[in-house]
Design goal:
- The protein is an alpha/beta fold and about 100 residues long.
- It is built from 2 helices and 3 strands; from the N terminus they run H-E-E-H-E.
- The protein has a domain of about 70 residues.
- Strands 1-3-2 form a 3-stranded parallel β-sheet, covered by helices on one side.
- Helix 2 links the parallel strand 2 and strand 3.
- The protein is elongated, with a radius of gyration of 16 Å.
């Protein structure tokens, strides 16, 4: 557990190196996404439905998660998103091809 001083030190960066997510790609797997949301639509690099999800059955959960990541005031607002929509429901098996994660800053 970090104390307040340690936490603040982790987030301090020089003014010329803001933490914006530029050069990073974030993968999100969630319920179908409202792709045209003005807060993040320009950050969506790729969006596909898998595991029987219907693209028009959008969920506010997917929109909330994506907004937190790359929305106008998101934690990585300049990052791109690769989004995979899955049918909602617990216990469903999701088979994904292994893809390496890469973030270049």
């Amino acid at each position: 557990m970090l104390n307040k001083t340690e936490y603040n030190r982790l987030w301090q960066r020089p003014d010329d190196m803001p933490l914006t997510g530029r050069g990073c790609v974030i993968g999100i797997i969630d319920q179908p996404l409202w792709r045209e949301h003005q807060g993040y639509r320009d950050n969506i690099q790729d969006s596909q439905s898998i595991n029987g999800a219907r693209p028009n059955d959008t969920s506010w959960h997917g929109a909330a998660v994506t907004s937190i990541a790359v929305g106008e005031i998101g934690v990585a607002r300049d990052a791109k998103v690769v989004y995979r929509a899955v049918e909602s429901g617990l216990g469903r098996e999701i088979k994904l091809k292994k893809t390496p994660a890469l973030c270049v800053t």
